[in-house]
Amino acid sequence: MSSMGGVVDFAEEAMGKRWQKYIEDAVEVQESVQTLWEESLFGIPLKEVIQTAHHHSALISLKSAVSKMADFDRLVIRYLDLCHNVIHKGIEEIQGHIKAHEDDLRLVGTAERESRKMAELSIQNLQEKVSELF
Fold first, then answer.
1. What is the pTM of this model?
2. Rounded (10°) CA dihedral 47, 51, 52, 56
3. Three-state SS letters, 62-122
């Protein structure tokens, strides 16, 4: 009977100490429960809580949706920043390679000019030596 303690307490509160006499009468039980409910005055606050929750549920849902959109927005911005950085880095690397090739071309041009001068000097020296010999 200890597991039924709450039921017994409720029955005594609703129907009195002689609740067992009336427990089989469904109408009596219903009336007693209805009277207890009305006397408890729980109906008014409970109704207000339900109405308030109902009125605020749309706002809560909207706030939740906006929060999810803000999270998604941050993810998209982070992704776009990453793409921008990769593209910008790629452009900087390409520009660096172009400059390095330009520098290499200048070095090749300088080396080519110096080689021609050296070749011309060598040919000139060789011609002079050949002229001296003959």
1. 0.39
2. 160
3. HHHHHHHHHHHHHHHHHHHHHHHHHHHHHHHHHHHHHHHHHHHHHHHHHHHHHHHHHHHHH
35-40: which pairs have CB atoms within 8 A and are 24 or more residues apart?
Answer: none
- Residue 23 makes CB contacts below 8 A (sequence gap 6+) with 11, 15, 29
- Report CA-CA distances (Å) from 131 to 120, 124, 126, 134: 16, 10, 8, 5
Per-residue pLDDT for the chain (134 aa), expressed as one digit of tens each?
Answer: 456 667 677 777 767 777 777 777 788 888 888 888 788 777 778 888 888 888 888 888 899 999 999 999 999 999 999 999 888 888 889 999 999 999 999 999 999 999 999 999 999 998 988 888 77
Check: CB of residue 28 under 8 Å from CB of residue 51. no
Residue 11 buriedness (CB in 10 A; 0-12 / 13-18 / 19+): buried
